[in-house]
Amino acid sequence: MAQLKFIITGSPGAGKTTAITAISETPPVRTDEATTDSLASSKSETTVAMDFGELTLEGGEKVFLYGTPGQRRFEFMWKIIAQGGLGLIVLVDCTREDPLADMEMYLENFSDFIGETSVVIGVTRSDAPGAPSLDDFYNRLQDSDRLFPILDVDPREADDVSLLINALISSLEYTTT
Amino acid sequence: MSHIEIGQTGKALCRRVFDEMMSKSDAVYGILISTVDGNEVVHSFKSELSSEKLSAMLGSMLALGENIAAEAQQNNCQFVIVENGDGYILTLRLKEKLVLSVIASNEANLGILHSLSRNGAEKLASKLK
């Protein structure tokens, strides 16, 4: 039976833990700890090592989902978690100051990984005042001749997370044909 | 930057406890208090180490260690220990939101490291509000 390892990354509070919790068939592994820095005003707990969940696709393939911590000080975990991964989901939170820059930062930090695999971008809280539109995200990618799937998602909804996973699988199939 | 601020007096107090711990074993060359979410609070190193990087890594390690223990149906994780060719790194929770880490060379006696880390943590916990 095929096993697929996918990574979910993105800014702190973007919904990585929530997405894995929403879709995992088993109780997810979570490493949440109390937030003690400036993030505490918006989030009482944060992932400090990894999240892990699993689900089974219709064809019987197992998907293992690994969530990274969002803060840059945990960059070492991004590299550890990415090992052996087949694809990346980047969640971008539109309530943050500069969501387009957030997207760029995660794409840049995972650029080697993305070069060998595939990536899908999930835009969360897109109804926030002043949030960039999906076109803004596409345009930012096109400025540097990149084109990746971008979806407006609610990470609390299993169907939305499933949509991201299916887009990632389709993208992988496309790049390997 | 951590919002857990123990002030200069608190840091001086911690460093005095660190000195006491180091005086009990010459093999100990680094002691660090960080937050559970990976921010540095106070450290005392005898060699050049990155307290920022170590704080983040040790926060991850303690969280993983505690989770692995729970997954294996073991309770009350006391220490997470990394034993290496060159020495040891002991990490334990200090109060609710802090992490105490002790770094020692391979000349250390692991039993002594256990006791000085535990005793140091108790002393620090009683003094830190």
Report on the structure:
The complex is a heterodimer of chains A (177) and B (129). By secondary structure, chain A is of the alpha/beta class. Chain A has one domain (3-175): Rossmann fold (3-Layer(aba) Sandwich), CATH 3.40.50.300. Helices cover 34% and strands 24% of the residues of chain A. Chain A contains 6 helices and 8 strands. Chain A has helices at 16-23, 75-82, 99-109, 111-116, 134-142, 158-175, and strands spanning 3-10, 32-34, 45-47, 51-56, 62-67, 87-93, 119-124, 150-152. In chain A, the strands form 2 sheets. Chain A has a 6-stranded mixed beta sheet, sandwiched between helices. In chain A, strands 2-3 form a two-stranded antiparallel ribbon. In chain A, helix 1 (16-23) packs across helix 6. By secondary structure, chain B is α+β, with helices and mostly antiparallel strands. Chain B has one domain: Beta-Lactamase, CATH 3.30.450. Chain B is 44% helix and 27% strand. Chain B contains 3 helices and 5 strands. In chain B, strands 2-1-5-4-3 form a 5-stranded antiparallel beta sheet, sandwiched between helices. The radius of gyration of chain B is 14 Å and the shape is globular.
